[in-house]
């Protein structure tokens, strides 16, 4: 499915990659996860090896468990270093936008990027991209991760020989995270071939897994226990579950960016549950995450009820209502979607 009508294919810039030294900015969605930061840093190391002057700018801070990534210490946090980031953005000739489909996902950087006159490129795997903002791009919702797309970009541009252990670590992290460690249906044969190739180039995959999943502090595991015991409701009649996290829990367990990552998947381990919602009472908004199994479309669900979107089986959204109000809306939405939620599973794969 080609989702682009007015954007030129990203392959048109392959010929420009090794011509002249360019000032390049790479950015990704706010609160970058392993796929967003991994794809940005994988592309960063690749373009640096080609001789370009590259800066990665994140719209916000990121999870502590991603700080091991090679180059993470050089990433500018737009919220924390706005003047420096603005200066780099004004100078940029190319800007790569990774792992998001709509500029508002870059928060306060959105209007800044919109105002830049440089060449803007999108590499992303979310549904329904806002194509008007980009001159070049590739949008493939069938792809496991943006890291897989950056890998394809490097290989198809003819520079696969530049992929070293550093690039392999960054790209592997995102593919591992977005495929749920290679278990979701998006884990195609091409994903496994890519991993085999990264292994050939020196990747120590177990280290990446440990960096990402065995790198939390004790408080986070205690928090998980508390939340699963006290904050999860299961609605068997809808094959769904909801986790509601009040601000007091975040304060009590000293929860930081990234500590809630993965929590939304736990209800799906209950027999029969195929839709999980997680809502967290953040300062500025109530932040939603949705995950599903099988034929329930969380992208449409998040768009319709929670001003969000994402992928078919994984999406997010937001609300300015109170925690109780937005949780009530979720329950109402379950009623309105009862047919889709009660259909027999497994029906068919989505891709
Ligand atoms: P997560 O639950 O991990 O925050 O997000 C799941 C997926 O949905 C990610 O791919 C993420 O980029 C996307 N997503 C999360 N929140 C939003 C949102 O508010 N709007 C849109 N369009 N996508 C979102
Ligand atoms: Mn992604």
TrEMBL record:
Protein's organism: Dinghuibacter silviterrae
The DHHA1 domain, residue ranges: 253-337
Superkingdom, natural source: Bacteria
PANTHER family attached to this UniProt entry: BIFUNCTIONAL OLIGORIBONUCLEASE AND PAP PHOSPHATASE NRNA (PTHR47618)
Coiled coil: none
SUPFAM superfamilies: DHH phosphoesterases
Protein name: Phosphoesterase RecJ-like protein
Signal peptide: none
GO molecular function: nucleic acid binding
Lineage: Bacteria, Pseudomonadati, Bacteroidota, Chitinophagia, Chitinophagales
InterPro entries linked to this entry: DDH_dom, DHH_sf, DHHA1_dom, Oligoribo/pAp-PDE_c-di-AMP_PDE
Residue ranges of domain DDH in the record: 23-175
Pfam families reported in the protein's UniProt record: DHH (PF01368), DHHA1 (PF02272)
């Amino acid at each position: 499915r080609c989702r682009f009508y007015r954007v030129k294919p990203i392959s048109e810039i392959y010929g420009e990659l090794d011509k002249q030294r360019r000032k390049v900015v790479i950015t990704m969605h706010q609160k970058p996860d392993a796929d967003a930061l991994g794809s940005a840093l994988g592309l960063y190391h690749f373009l640096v090896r080609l001789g370009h002057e590259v800066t990665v700018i994140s719209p916000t801070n990121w999870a502590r468990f991603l700080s091991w990534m090679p180059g993470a210490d050089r990433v500018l946090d737009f919220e924390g270093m706005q003047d420096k980031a603005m200066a780099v953005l004004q100078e940029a000739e190319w800007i790569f936008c990774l792992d998001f489909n709509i500029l508002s996902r870059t928060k306060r950087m959105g209007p800044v990027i919109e105002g830049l006159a440089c060449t803007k490129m999108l590499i992303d795997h979310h549904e329904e991209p806002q194509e008007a903002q980009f001159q070049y791009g590739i949008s493939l919702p069938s792809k496991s991760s943006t890291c897989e797309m950056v890998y394809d970009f490097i290989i198809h541009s003819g520079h696969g020989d530049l992929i070293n252990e550093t690039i392999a670590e960054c790209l592997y992290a995102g593919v591992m995270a977005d495929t749920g460690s290679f278990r979701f249906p998006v884990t195609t044969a091409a994903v496994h071939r890519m991993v085999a190739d990264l292994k050939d180039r020196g990747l120590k995959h177990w280290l990446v897994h440990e960096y990402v999943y065995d790198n939390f502090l004790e408080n986070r595991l205690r928090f998980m226990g508390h939340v699963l015991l006290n904050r999860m409701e299961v609605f068997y009649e809808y094959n769904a579950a909801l986790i509601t996290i009040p601000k007091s829990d975040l304060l009590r367990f000293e929860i930081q960016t990234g500590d809630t990552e993965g929590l939304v998947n736990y209800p799906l381990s209950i027999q029969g549950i195929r839709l999980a919602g997680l809502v967290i009472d953040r300062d500025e908004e109530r932040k939603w995450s949705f995950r599903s199994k099988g034929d329930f479309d969380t992208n449409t669900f998040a768009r319709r009820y929670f001003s969000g979107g994402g992928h078919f089986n994984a999406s997010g959204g937001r609300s300015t209502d109170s925690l109780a109000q937005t949780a009530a809306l979720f329950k109402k939405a379950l009623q309105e979607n009862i047919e889709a939620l009660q259909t027999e599973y497994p029906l068919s794969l989505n891709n």
